[in-house]
Specification:
- The chain contains 14 helices and 10 strands.
- The protein is an alpha+beta fold and 397 residues long.
- It folds into 2 domains: 259 residues, no CATH class; 130 residues, Roll (CBS-domain).
- The strands form 3 sheets. The protein has a 4-stranded mixed sheet. The chain has a 3-stranded antiparallel sheet with strand order 5-6-7. Strands 8-9-10 form a 3-stranded mixed sheet.
- Helix 2 packs across helix 5 and helix 6 runs antiparallel to helix 7.
- The protein is elongated, with a radius of gyration of 26 Å.
- The relative contact order is 0.07.
Length: 397
């Protein structure tokens, strides 16, 4: 099952929305419509507050998309391939197909996101100011200034503040936040060692994450925390963000270790080259009883006159009713070869592992000039990592 849906393709970059985004979208709209906007504008009716809450939430996520697009476009100009952006509960993520080639590429790609958010914040505040009459400006009574704003400048004012907060938050030097990537780039430039720079930046990210968790716990206990305040729900939310950042910092470091171990390993060294092939005319019943049961093989290539034409896996068989197995031929339920994700025999194992994760499959056929040479399974790659990953990998796992 997909974790979201396709929203758009911008400059060749696919934009996906994770279902978790709906949670934070609802929370933002609800809090604006029931708390903030009524406090700023007691004269607004419920309908107007809800509509403006929806408009503000949509504009905020458009701002997050602009933040991530800036990462992707600058990264592309620096040789970092970004083909997909995902918007989810904690904001957005630009998915890099490869690590930055040098510290300067990392630095520019990382810093442009917060700068974009800060510029958007200043722009929205400027737009809000255009709608305010000079006589309505009362710096000593900001609540009166807010009350004098119409619906549109109210949304602009909120967007300005929230984008500035987003930009400043992302500048915190904790990996994988943008500030953590800036820190990694600087340390990479100083030491010339990406591995060490990533470890330090990841540790900084974990330290910041545990500060958020501790602050959230204190808020849940009723203590007043500077900047964040107090309360059960805000404290729970802050601790949850800290937990997420801690996991993200650990995962980011592990991903680098995995890539370092696997990037020079051709998939041909890991693939299973001995496998059972089947004919498109074999029945599902015969396939299960003659080949599947008692075998470790879970995917069967289908050959027609020595030509690889497709593949059948357990999921294909599960889609057929048990009573139909004797009458159903393999050729009818197989996935045709041209529709299969596959690995090239010379590809490195790091790229193939990423493809397995992206496709959410456990094995891929390995081809050479269109000819099937074997299968590479997730477990084959993990076994290699356990043997050759080294002490750093085992400690981080």
């Amino acid at each position: 099952m997909r974790n979201g849906f396709h929203l758009a393709t911008i400059a060749g970059i696919e934009v996906q929305v994770d279902w978790s985004l709906l949670i934070i979208f609802f929370l933002i709209t609800f809090s604006l419509a029931t708390a903030l906007f009524p406090a700023w504008h007691p004269d607004w009716g419920p309908l107007l507050s809800v509509v403006m809450g929806l408009v503000a939430a949509l504009a905020f996520f458009a701002s997050v998309l602009a933040h991530e697009l800036s990462h992707a476009l600058v990264g592309r100009s620096r040789g970092i391939d970004v083909k997909r952006i995902t918007l989810f509960i904690f904001g957005g993520m630009a998915h890099m197909q490869n690590e930055p080639r040098n510290w300067r590429a990392e630095l520019w790609m990382a810093i442009v996101g917060p700068v974009t958010s800060l510029l958007l914040g200043v722009l929205f505040l400027w737009l809000a100011g255009l709608f305010i009459e000079p006589a309505a400006l009362k710096p000593e009574h900001p609540e009166l200034t807010l009350a004098a704003m119409g619906p549109l400048p109210t949304v602009f004012a909120w967007l300005g503040n929230i984008n500035i907060i987003l930009g400043l938050f992302n500048l915190v030097p904790g990996f994988p936040l943008d500030g953590g990537r800036v820190l990694r780039a600087v340390m990479w430039g100083i030491t010339g060692d990406l591995h060490r720079a990533t470890r330090w930046a990841s540790q900084g990210g974990q330290f910041f994450a545990w500060l958020l968790i501790a602050a959230g716990a204190a808020m849940m206990l009723g203590l007043q925390v500077p900047v964040f305040g107090t309360g059960l729900i805000p404290g729970l939310w802050l601790a949850f963000i800290g937990w997420f950042l801690n996991n993200a910092a650990l995962v980011s470091y592990r991903q680098l270790l995995v890539r370092e171990v696997l990037e020079d390993v051709p998939v041909s060294r890991l693939m299973q080259s001995r496998f059972t092939r089947i004919s498109p005319d074999i029945t599902v019943d015969a396939l299960v009883h003659d080949h599947l049961l008692g075998s470790e093989q879970r995917a069967f290539p289908v050959f027609d006159d020595n030509r690889f034409v497709g593949m059948i896996c357990l999921q294909d068989i599960r889609g057929i009713a048990r009573g139909d197995w004797p009458q159903t031929r393999a050729g009818r339920i197989m996935t045709p070869a041209e529709k299969l994700a596959h690995a090239d025999v010379q590809e490195d194992a790091a790229t193939v592992l990423e493809r397995l994760a992206r496709r959410q499959v456990n094995q891929l056929p390995v081809l050479e000039h269109g000819e099937l040479r074997g299968f590479v399974r997730r477990e084959d790659i993990m076994r290699w990592l356990s043997l050759y990953g080294g002490e750093d990998f085992r400690n981080a796992a």
